[in-house]
C-alpha cells in the first residue's frame, strides 16, 4: 500500500515536471525567420538534406509532406498533433480520423527528428520540422517555383483527438458552400480555398475517397476519365489512384483517353497549375474539386490560375505560408518533443 502511494507520488511529480518544462504556445506574430540560427545552426540544411534524399527515392513522399502540413495546421494549429501515435492514455489521436486516410511520411519526419536531436537535443520542435520539410518538398516538386521563408519557434502540442480532426478538416464529398465555410472558419477566403486546392496536382487518393465520382453524370466528370477511374478502382481492394491524370500509366491513359497521352508527364508529382486545367476539363478525382466550378467566385479563380501559372506559384507560396502560421488554441501548453510520435512524459 505504502509502495503504491510512493509510486503515485512519483508519477505525479514526473507529470508536474513535464508541465513545468512545457511552455505556452507562441502566437503567429512571435514566430521568426531564422529562429534556429543561433539555437541550432544549420538545422534547416539538415532537414532539407533528408527531404532531398527521400524525394530522390520517391517524389510522392513530397506530396505526403504538403498534405501533412495542411492536416496538422487546420486542427489545433501547427503543433505536430497529427504526428502523435495512439497510446494507452490517448487511444484515438488525429491519425485515427477517417478524414486522415492515406497520411504518410511519418517515418521520414521521425528520421529527421532523430538527426536533429543528435545535433541539438531538445531544441527543435516537430511542428517546425514538419513545416520546413513540407516547404522544401513544395520547392523541390515545383522546381523551385514554390518557395517561402519559414517563420519558426512553434511548440509541439500535447493534445490530439480524432473527433476534432474529423470535425475540422474538409471532406471530399463537400459542396462548395461547405468548403467555403470550412476554410472561412480558419480565416481563409474563397480565393485561398481555390489556391490551396491546387495542391491536388500532386499525390494520390484512395478509391474510397471518390466513390461518388465513379457514377457521376457527364456534366460533372468526363465519361472517359470516369471509365479510367472505374478501371483503376477495380484492380484491387480500395487502391490508390494518382490525383493528376498526367501522372497515370501512359498505357492506361492510351486505353481510356488516347487524345491525352501527349500530356502524360515524364516526371510525376510536379506541383504546378495543371490542377486547374484538369478541373476545367472535368478530369479531377474528388467531388470537392469539381464543386469549385459551381460557384461564380471560385470558378473565376479556377480560370485565373489555369491561365497564369506564375501567379499560382506565388499565391500558393503565400497561402501555404499563411497555413503554416495557424496558431494553437489560446493558452495551450506545448513542449519540444523528444520523438514526434509521442508526447514527452510518455516517452
Ligand atoms: C479543399 C478541401 C480539400 C479536400 C476535400 C481534400 C481531400 C483530399 C483527399 C480525400 C485526399 C486523398 C486521401 C486518400 O484517399 O488517401 C487528398 C490528398 C491530398 N491532398 Fe487534399 N483536400 C483538400 C485540400 C487540400 C489542401 C489545402 C492541401 C495542401 C495545401 C491538400 C493536399 C493534398 C495532397 C498533396 C494530397 C496527396 C497526398 C499523398 O499523395 O500522400 N489538400 N486530399
UniProtKB/TrEMBL annotation:
**Which residues are recorded as binding Ca(2+) 2?**
249, 272
Gene Ontology CC annotations of this record: extracellular region
Q: Entry cofactor note text? A: Binds 2 calcium ions per subunit.
**Which GO terms are recorded in the biological process aspect for this UniProt protein?**
hydrogen peroxide catabolic process; response to oxidative stress
Provide the reaction this enzyme catalyses.
2 a phenolic donor + H2O2 = 2 a phenolic radical donor + 2 H2O
Annotated residues for binding of Ca(2+) 1: 72, 75, 77, 79, 81, 94
Q: Which residues bind heme b?
A: 200
> Per the record, where is site Transition state stabilizer?
67
List, separated by semicolons, the cofactors it needs: Ca(2+); heme b
Top-level taxon:
Eukaryota
Q: Which Gene3D superfamilies match?
A: 1.10.520.10, Peroxidase, domain 2
The GO molecular function terms of this record are: heme binding; lactoperoxidase activity; metal ion binding
Membrane spanning residue stretches: none
Q: Domain (Plant heme peroxidase family profile): give its ranges.
A: 30-344
Cellular localisation: Secreted
Q: Where is the signal peptide?
A: 1-16
Disulfide linkages recorded for this protein, renumbered to the chain, are 40-120, 73-78, 126-340, 207-233
Q: Tell me the CDD domains matching this sequence.
A: secretory_peroxidase
This protein's major location comes to secreted
The Enzyme Commission number assigned here is 1.11.1.7
Active-site residues?
A: 71 (proton acceptor)
User: What keyword terms does UniProt attach to this protein?
Assistant: Calcium, Disulfide bond, Glycoprotein, Heme, Hydrogen peroxide, Iron, Metal-binding, Oxidoreductase, Peroxidase, Pyrrolidone carboxylic acid, Secreted, Signal
Protein purpose: Removal of H(2)O(2), oxidation of toxic reductants, biosynthesis and degradation of lignin, suberization, auxin catabolism, response to environmental stresses such as wounding, pathogen attack and oxidative stress. These functions might be dependent on each isozyme/isoform in each plant tissue.
| Protein's recorded name | Peroxidase
Amino acid at each position: 500500500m505504502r509502495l503504491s502511494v510512493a509510486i503515485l507520488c512519483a508519477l505525479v511529480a514526473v507529470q508536474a515536471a513535464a508541465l513545468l518544462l512545457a511552455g505556452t504556445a507562441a502566437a503567429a506574430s512571435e514566430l521568426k525567420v531564422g529562429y534556429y540560427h543561433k539555437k541550432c545552426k544549420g538545422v534547416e540544411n539538415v532537414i532539407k538534406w533528408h527531404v532531398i534524399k527521400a524525394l530522390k527515392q520517391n517524389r510522392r513522399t513530397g506530396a505526403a509532406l504538403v498534405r501533412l502540413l495542411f492536416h496538422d495546421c487546420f486542427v489545433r494549429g501547427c503543433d505536430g498533433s497529427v504526428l502523435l501515435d495512439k497510446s494507452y492514455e490517448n487511444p484515438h489521436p488525429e491519425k485515427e480520423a477517417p478524414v486522415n486516410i492515406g497520411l504518410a511520411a511519418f517515418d521520414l519526419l521521425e528520421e529527421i527528428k532523430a538527426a536533429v536531436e543528435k545535433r541539438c537535443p531538445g531544441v527543435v520542435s516537430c511542428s517546425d520540422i514538419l513545416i520546413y520539410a513540407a516547404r522544401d518538398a513544395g520547392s523541390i516538386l515545383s522546381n523551385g517555383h514554390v518557395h517561402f521563408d519559414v517563420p519558426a519557434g512553434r511548440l509541439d502540442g500535447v493534445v490530439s483527438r480524432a473527433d476534432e480532426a474529423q470535425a475540422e478538416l474538409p471532406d471530399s464529398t463537400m459542396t462548395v458552400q461547405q468548403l467555403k465555410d470550412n476554410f472561412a472558419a480558419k480565416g481563409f477566403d474563397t480565393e485561398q480555398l481555390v489556391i490551396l486546392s491546387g495542391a491536388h496536382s500532386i499525390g494520390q487518393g484512395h478509391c474510397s475517397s471518390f466513390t461518388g465520382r465513379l457514377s457521376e453524370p457527364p456534366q460533372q466528370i468526363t465519361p472517359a476519365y470516369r471509365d479510367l477511374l472505374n478501371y483503376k478502382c477495380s484492380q484491387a481492394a480500395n487502391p490508390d489512384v494518382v490525383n493528376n491524370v498526367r501522372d497515370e500509366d501512359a498505357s492506361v491513359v492510351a486505353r481510356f483517353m488516347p487524345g491525352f497521352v501527349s500530356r502524360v508527364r515524364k516526371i510525376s508529382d510536379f506541383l504546378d497549375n495543371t490542377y486547374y486545367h484538369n478541373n476545367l476539363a472535368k478530369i479531377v478525382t474528388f467531388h470537392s474539386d469539381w464543386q469549385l466550378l459551381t460557384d461564380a467566385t471560385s470558378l473565376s479563380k479556377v480560370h485565373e490560375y489555369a491561365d497564369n501559372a506564375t501567379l499560382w506559384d506565388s499565391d500558393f507560396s503565400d497561402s501555404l505560408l499563411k497555413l503554416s502560421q495557424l496558431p494553437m488554441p489560446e493558452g495551450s501548453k506545448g513542449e519540444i518533443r523528444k520523438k514526434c510520435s509521442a508526447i514527452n512524459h510518455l516517452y
